[in-house]
Amino acid sequence: MTKQIILGHYLGGLNHQTLWSDPAAGSQIDFASFKHAAQTAERGKFDFFFLAEGLVLRERQGQIFDQDVIGRPDTLTVLAALAEVTEHLGLVATLNATFNEPYELARQLATLDHLSGGRAGWNIVTSSDAFTGRNFRRGGFLAREDRYVRAQEFLTVARQLWDSWSAGDITADKESGRFLSRPDAGEFAFSGKQFDVSGRFTVPRSPQGQPVILQAGVSSEGREFAAGGGPDAIFSPYHTLAEAQPFYREIQQRAAAHGKPPGSVKVLPGAAFVLADTETEAIERHREIAHAQITGRGAQILLETVWNRDLSGYDPDGPLPDVDPDPDGPPIIQGRARIHQNPADTIAQWRSIAEENKYSLRELAIHVFGHVEFVGTPTQIADRLHDFVQNEGSDGFIIGSHLTPTGLDEFVDRVVPLLQERGSLRTDYEGTTLRDNLGLSTPVGSAG
After folding, report:
1. Residue 203 and residue 72 share a domain
2. Which residues are annotated as a binding site?
3. What's the domain count of the chain?
4. Which residue of 24, 250, 354, 389 has the smallest Cβ count within 10 Å?
């Protein structure tokens, strides 16, 4: 039986993946951009639309990071507006478990689920840095090793709140003019290391029961949280079958060890594409886009996130910096998630890649930060996506584009029909909620 491909679409902010200077690029703030991207994804029968969120403007050596400004309207507000102009598309928000509170966030997500008819999702992320924390009352109090402790408790509390109501708990009696509900509907109490809360949740059970939960993280703690802590899907950083298959198997094995049924945790790598009528044209177009995305100055700054040194004196078209990283020094780049936990090992690998391929500093940056994996004709890309999922590299992909907001159009017009011909992508929506369309079970509320 052909496995169905899960597709999400993310709209990137202003960074090295976005060609904001392209004449065809649109606004990162105007609602028309979000509307076009979401409606295009729905036209292509995508499962969900995904928005990341930046809680702080990035800085380099104390100055606003002009190579990568991540500022955009509030995610939940945008998704609530998109609920009105879409019918089937899931609406997934990246929201931080470190600087928010369970009651507030659970209430907002349950509201979005009601407004959208059961299409809400939450990509749960964490943070431990004081730079981001200074925007919040709690500041940078959270030790790095406690991030997932708080995230796990946060999710546990949120689910208790969502489950404090059961379907049918509240009814309207027109004769008496009163609302009737179960006496203890909405009541909750939780006491743990991170939270000590009790009260009564104000939002009745939403159409999905609980929003779909997604999570990113490939550390040992992140993998265990993804498999056992409750997320319905995990983002994967792997884009070749050789790397992706072991990760996919590990997540499924960890989930099974926690008593979860097969397929209950979806694995979804991020992906981008470059299309053309011939493979040669696609490769050339990819080269042009990559060099426009990562300028010489941009390459220096991207490598500074790992070296933690000022690399502005190094020639972008020359060899890699001949100095070691400074992981213990004051961060030169503030506000960017740290994805390379061991800078020395990472740089050693990069030196090997650069030597083998004769890469310059900029070419190495394009190679490791480029994020464009699918390059070719529509048929070639459809074949690769199809084969990747059928061979258990993932359950689907989160598709992005270098162009906002129209970058997804050609994928929907030229690749989606080919996936539908192969039987690996729906031709129409069958379910009414995001859980339905992802093939996930509906949680049974503890109060029910």
Report:
1. yes
2. 94, 148, 219
3. 2
4. 24
